[in-house]
Amino acid sequence: MGDVMSDMVNRTQSNLESYNNLVSTISEIYTAGQSEAIAAVNSQMVGTYWRIGKYIVEFEQQGKERAEYGKGLLNRLSKDLKMQHGKGFSLSNVKRMRQFYLVFPKGAELPHLLSWTHFVELLKISDDLERGFYLNQTINEKWSTTELIRQKKSSLYLRLAASKDKKGILELSQKGAVIQKPEDIIREPYILDFLKIPEKHQYTEKELEDRIIDHLKDFLLELGKGFAFIARQYRVPIGNRIHAVDLVFYHRILKCFVLIDLKREEAGYEDVGQMNMYLGYFENEENTEGDNPPIGIVLAKEKDELLIQYAMHNVSSQLFVNKYQLYLPNKEELRNMIETQLNEEVI
Fold first, then answer.
1. For strand 319-325 and strand 190-191, is the pairing parallel, antiparallel, or unpaired?
2. What is d(CA 47, CA 114) in angstroms, rounded to the nearest whole number?
3. Same domain, 24 and 38
4. How confident is the model at residue 346, as a pLDDT?
5. Do residue 206 and residue 276 come from a single domain?
6. Are the beta carbons of 323 and 263 closer than 8 angstroms?
7. What residues contact 56, with CB distance under 8 A and at least 6 apart?
8. Within this chain, do residues 227 and 290 fall inside the same structural domain, yes or no?
9. How many CB atoms lie within 10 A of CB 84?
10. For labelling alongside 341, which of 1, 36, 153, 207 has CA 20 to 30 A away?
11. What pTM, to 2 d.p., does this model score?
């Protein structure tokens, strides 16, 4: 009797597992189908709006007989099309459709993975180089529209471009931020506005770390492509003392650990020495086959450039001292720096 009961229980468990697998398979297929349907709808919508923009521009360009419509054309189109098709033809949308065609005249080259809301955000950027950067970066990193908006607000392009020469700025526009070496993951400054820490608030390093963990998704977005979170307060036993790295990540593209130590105020020479010690420990004790040397970032609110320069004399080239800001940078100052670089000849 016991064997019979046991056999029935086993069959029941097997049937339950089979059923759960069925539910899981159907869910995966349905989710994939939804994603494909949304992508197809987005692609169709983008193509439709591009063609509408093309027809508007071609109508405007057909000589004097169309001059009577003049500047009132878009207003008239919006009014008439809204009566037939609803608010999708608001004046602002009609203007965007026209602009869409003018900015992207080759419809066959449109990135089909981007939605109309992506393109609306891109069209708001007047500078061609800046728009090219965000276009490529959105494709490369598969940003949602929300992520694209945040990176625009944080002046990501301006922060990256301000530290490059003319050739580097042009490459950013044409390819986005391509990661090939440790320097490519560094940003100056890092913008931590999503932590919502008032500028004059007397926060501690632990509070800064806690808030970063609470907003880890946003912090990863600010760090850039390829980062995976490993741990906080990672224990580093050296001699008779236990040290701790504030934040440890792994970079999938560079295939190495990335260690971050947070400093509430100015970074000092002792912070450089401590991070260099952490790098030595990780390379000797934590790296496994295939791992590249670790990267260390001392992330501080302030830094004395000359002091840091001397403190890092003969120190690992994998160690960086960078600033963070709790508010957005001055865009005009960054733009002026970039304009200066662009006006210089490439050597």
1. parallel
2. 11
3. yes
4. 47
5. yes
6. no
7. 73, 74, 77, 94, 97, 98, 101
8. yes
9. 7
10. 153
11. 0.76
Number of domains present in the structure of the chain: 3
Confidence of residue 178 (pLDDT cuts 50, 70, 90): confident
- The CA distances from residue 195 to 2, 99, 141, 146, 248, in Å, are 61, 36, 22, 17, 19
Residue 252, in any domain of the structure? yes
Residues 329-337, mean pLDDT to the nearest whole number = 87
Q: Is 226 left (phi over 0), alpha (psi -120 to 50) or beta?
A: left
Residue-range definition of the domain harbouring residue 154:
125-185+330-347
9 pLDDT higher than 90 = no
**Predicted local distance difference test score (pLDDT) of residue 19:** 62
CA–centroid distance for 277 within its chain: 30
Residue 181 exposed, middle or buried by CB count within 10 Å (0-12, 13-18, 19+): exposed
Q: How many helices (H) and strands (E) does the chain have?
A: 13, 6
Same domain, 147 and 30: no
Could you tell me if residue 116 is inside a domain? no
| Stretch 136-160: mean pLDDT | 92
Q: How many residues does the chain have?
A: 347
Per-residue pLDDT, averaged over 313-341, amounts to 88
Quick check: 58 pLDDT over 90?
Answer: no
CA distances from residue 347 to 167, 178, 344 in whole angstroms, order as listed: 9, 22, 9
For residue 239, the SS3 value is coil
Chain position carrying tokens 């033809």:
89
Instruction: Tell me how far apart the alpha carbons of residues 282 and 293 are, in angstroms, rounded to a whole number.
Output: 8
On whether both 203 and 293 belong to a single domain, the answer is yes
The Cα angle at residue 253 between residues 248 and 258, in degrees rounded to 5: 20
* Three-state secondary-structure class, residue 283: helix
How many Å apart are CA 111 and CA 42, to the nearest integer? 11
Q: Is the dihedral of CA 126, 127, 129, 133 positive or negative?
A: negative
